[in-house]
Amino acid sequence: CVVCFVLPLISRENFNTCGVLFQYSITVYREIATRLCKMSVDERVKKINSCVKSYPNWPKAGIIFRDLFPVFQKPEVLRNLIDLFKEHIKENFADVQAIVGIESRGFLFAPILALELNISFIPIRKKGKLPGKLRQSSYTLEYGEDTIEIQEECITPNMKCVIADDLLATGGTMNAAINLLQQCNADVKECLVAIELPDLNGRKKLSVPVFSVLKF
């Protein structure tokens, strides 16, 4: 910063003027940094997308499995993913109080995101894996039903929450998670997912907005 170098050479009479210029330069640099960050969103998304591997006909015929795990093998790409989530939350839900992660792959990045935002991480787990007083929500699977649970003591009335998971497909699990939090009188602001499969219309089942980084 040029202003920093000339400060020692400026007279006391002009110091206030220099101070104003210095503050202005900081503001300008911040605006430039913000713009550069926004400009690089597409580039970061491309890097994340390049790490996702696709496996046709797995785990069964007709299914294309999108494997997000390679993202976690490259710290710089994982940083891109976390930063995209973090920037989105700060821009849209600055007062959010908790990131709620869904077992199991939601646990991969939800705690990191909560730590970055300096807010709570709250787990939603499958039935029988949490102690204490619980709330339950069930959802239908292709060949049956599954149940998820949350500890009541983790949620306070009107707590502003964002749900995080790796994938939004048919929306069954995410919808159950929303219902679970609403049972606890939480204020669910949004659902964050790394990957969305739009052809399965999962977001249409949900009562809150969805932010997804990748769509396949």
From TrEMBL:
Identify the enzyme class: transferase
EC assignment: 2.4.2.7
A single Gene Ontology biological process assigned to it is:
AMP salvage
Main location (coarse class): cytoplasm
Residue ranges of domain Phosphoribosyltransferase in the record? 73-195
Q: Which UniProt keyword terms apply here?
A: Cytoplasm, Glycosyltransferase, Purine salvage, Transferase
Name any one Pfam family assigned in the record. Answer: Pribosyltran
* Pathway, per record: Purine metabolism; AMP biosynthesis via salvage pathway; AMP from adenine: step 1/1
GO MF term list: adenine binding; adenine phosphoribosyltransferase activity; AMP binding
Origin superkingdom? Eukaryota
Q: Which reaction does it catalyse?
A: AMP + diphosphate = 5-phospho-alpha-D-ribose 1-diphosphate + adenine
State the compartments where it is located.
Cytoplasm
Xref: InterPro entries: Ade_phspho_trans (IPR005764), PRTase-like (IPR029057), PRTase_dom (IPR000836), UPRTase/APRTase (IPR050054)
GO CC terms of this entry: cytoplasm
The function of this protein is:
Catalyzes a salvage reaction resulting in the formation of AMP, that is energically less costly than de novo synthesis.
What PANTHER family is this protein classified in?
ADENINE PHOSPHORIBOSYLTRANSFERASE
Could you say which protein family the record assigns here? Belongs to the purine/pyrimidine phosphoribosyltransferase family.
UniProt name for this protein: Adenine phosphoribosyltransferase
Q: Give the species this sequence originates from.
A: Leptotrombidium deliense
